[in-house]
């Protein structure tokens, strides 16, 4: 059961969307915090008698001052859990890198993630339903991305090749870079072989698709 919710959000339009979804879900009383310090004060004030059931936060939430000290939304989550260890957390953000999102679940133990964008109201509703039942909500498309990443074990050599491509280096020029930096193997055939193996394993036909995937996954 979700009754007391704290919404940590500094964009008014986003706040209105979330509040409307919460109201439709049956949660009418929602407190708001517009920066990290305000959110932590509100959590601390209520933790003893009437604690929040859920914190909804963006990863890019600002701090009150100009200097970032707590690390944005991730810092807020860690600090909030120190005050209230059992606080449920739902992240609502534009972040799309699967590696970053996976870390939220593995390191910060968040209860759900919803990516801002098309159909995010529906995703918010699903997330609330799952969290209310003490289940974690992980968007299906992100599950697929992580599963796809795990189908191929990237070596340091693979990552270097993709990184060089992402920086605009032509495939045929990579061997010269490898030779100049005493990296082996350095032949064009070795580079082509590694690229072909990566693309076949991940189902891509073009280097551009591989580069985009590695960026989205946080591999490069």
Quick structural gist:
This protein has 220 residues and is an alpha/beta fold. The protein is 51% helix and 10% strand.
What would you note in describing this structure?
The protein has 220 residues and is an alpha/beta fold. The chain contains 10 helices and 5 strands, in the order E-H-E-H-E-H-E-H-E-H-H-H-H-H-H. The protein has helices at residues 12-24, 36-46, 72-83, 98-107, 120-132, 140-149, 156-166, 174-180, 188-202, 207-217, and strands spanning 5-8, 30-33, 54-57, 88-93, 112-115. A 5-stranded parallel β-sheet has the order 2-1-3-4-5, sandwiched between helices. The two termini are 40 Å apart. The model has no long low-confidence stretch (mean pLDDT 87).
Task: Spell out the blueprint of helices and strands.
Blueprint: E1 5-8, H1 12-24, E2 30-33, H2 36-46, E3 54-57, H3 72-83, E4 88-93, H4 98-107, E5 112-115, H5 120-132, H6 140-149, H7 156-166, H8 174-180, H9 188-202, H10 207-217
Parallel strand pairs: 1-2, 1-3, 3-4, 4-5
């Amino acid at each position: 059961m979700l009754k007391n919710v704290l919404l940590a959000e500094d964009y008014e339009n986003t706040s209105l969307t979330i509040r409307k979804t919460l109201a439709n879900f049956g949660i009418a009383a929602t407190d708001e915090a517009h920066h990290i310090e305000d959110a932590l004060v509100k959590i601390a004030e209520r933790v003893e008698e009437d604690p929040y059931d859920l914190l909804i936060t963006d990863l890019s939430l600002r701090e009150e001052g100009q200097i970032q000290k707590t690390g944005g939304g991730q810092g807020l989550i860690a600090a909030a859990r120190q005050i209230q260890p059992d606080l449920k957390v739902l992240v609502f953000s534009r972040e799309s890198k699967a590696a970053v999102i996976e870390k939220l679940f593995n390191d910060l133990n968040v209860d759900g993630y919803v990516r801002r964008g098309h159909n995010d109201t529906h995703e918010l509703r699903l997330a609330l339903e799952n969290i209310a039942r003490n289940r974690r909500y992980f968007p299906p498309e992100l599950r697929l991305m992580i599963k796809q990443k795990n189908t191929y074990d990237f070596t340091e050599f693979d990552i270097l090749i993709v990184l060089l491509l992402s920086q605009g280096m032509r495939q045929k020029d990579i061997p010269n870079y490898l030779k100049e930096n005493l990296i082996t193997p350095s032949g064009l055939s070795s580079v082509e072989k590694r690229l072909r193996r990566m693309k076949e394993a991940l189902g891509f036909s073009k280097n551009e698709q591989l580069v985009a995937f590695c960026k989205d996954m946080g591999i490069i």
